[in-house]
Amino acid sequence: MSTETIYLAEQVAAIDAAGATVTLRSTDGRGFNTRPADAPANAHFVPRIQRVGRFTRSVFGLGSSFGAGQIGFGDFALNNQGGDLDAWLDYSFDGRSFKLWRGPQDAIFPSGFTSLISGTHESAEFTTAEVRFALRDRMATIATPHCQSIYAGDNALPDGLEGVAGDLGGKRKPKLYGVAENVPPPMVNTSKLIYQLSDGAIKTVSAAYDRGSALTKGANYTDVTDMTTNAPAAGNYRELPGSGYFRLGSSPTGMLTCDATEGANAADRTLAQVFKRILLDRGVAAGDISAADLTQLDTDTGSAECGIWIYGDDTTMDALDRILPCGGAWCGQDRGYLWRVKQLKAPSASPAVWLDLPSELGLELQRTEDPAGGLPAWRITIGYERNWSPQAADLAGGVTDARRAFLKEEWRASVAADATVKNQYLSAQDLRFDTLLVSSAAAATEATRQLALRKVRRRLVERRVPMDAAGAAAIDIGAEVGVKSDRFWGAAGKVFVVLACADDYERDEIVLTLWG
Prior knowledge:
Layout: E1 5-14, E2 21-27, E3 32-33, E4 44-47, E5 49-58, E6 73-79, E7 97-104, E8 114-126, E9 130-136, E10 175-183, E11 187-189, E12 194-196, E13 204-210, E14 213-214, E15 216-217, H1 224-229, E16 236-240, E17 245-248, E18 256-261, H2 271-281, H3 291-300, E19 307-310, H4 316-323, E20 329-333, E21 339-343, E22 353-355, E23 363-366, E24 377-384, H5 401-408, E25 412-417, H6 421-424, E26 429-434, H7 440-454, E27 460-466, E28 480-483, E29 494-504, E30 509-515
Helix pairs in contact: 2-3, 2-4
């Protein structure tokens, strides 16, 4: 059996205006044919791969230990010296599947090959010598507006729940996950004063307010016909359970807001469970989300409740970036393209692998992109219990002073501090993380945790590892890695968390960005 290692690539492209697709197969070897029992059977991979470059995945922005999630990116090129691929110029690759494997020339496909990339194309660039492809991992598929349903704007007033062309027509329907307070829902029927808080099932609209003053909640509706036929009493509102709709009995005199809850119980409104439902709503299969990570995240966050209301053109990635700070967490895709979500913690003493490699392979201490180069923090402020519609004026006369104080501020705040950090670090940081946590207790817990995590000096290290090094397969984003060096940290070494992982197939090495 041949031990020659080859790459195999499958690319999907649309070939006409109807969206008909073709699967294009290539290799860097002398050609490869699958067997009759392989999947797919009797498929030919044409020898045209010219370059397999670097594919990078990062927990946060490169060099940062918090912030927005990042889409993995990479590059790939096919030989076009003879013009064989010129016909592809009119193909559409954007958003279409890209898969890459590596294995022995004579191996069974796909079981005998290692899956390296399962992502999408961003673009294709043609030259007379090659076709270069920019690649993205599957996180790119959620970098689009989360709210996919659109108001038709076709109400024939006084009937209809889709607005009219002059108000809601063409706008996106909102979505609620978990708990949200003082949300300004759109009015979907101006004749009957019907509002829609969320496009989909929710648990309850627990309160409604006109200029900050609570309306009286009447009996629930039984169905849509009941809601559209029977108006509430003046000064009242009634909801249609499970629908996201509610109706007022009289026109509001100012801003109309409401409090609402999605999720059957508190256990359904944790960061982990909200994260999962957001992805499921965008078509991610449940089996593509790490169940073990969800369970661990519930444990790490104490199953604290949170919530997010999404309205407008915010992307799914925007939504995830807003809820992940509830647990100081990150999300991304591992090499198997399983969705991972984990809380960023201080490294433990038991890493997945120890790297005891010669220093000439590359070990570089770097400055982080965090504020002040990642200097320790002496104070952490956690924003919580978001008010989705701050109101400093035009409030009803009967609104209490306590309610006025709440409505004026967008966030409540919980603070943890240790002024002694400034004894050593004169420029120690004062950091704030706004979250969508609901309770003050959960916010206080996270503030204390973040302070403990960030009041000590953390280092950012870049380390190069041969792909065939012992333990290399266990190194992925979020993993813990121990590093031994003849220059730093002594014989005991130091443990880090992998914040970024760049698989460089040209150099046959992995470039790790480590934090700890």
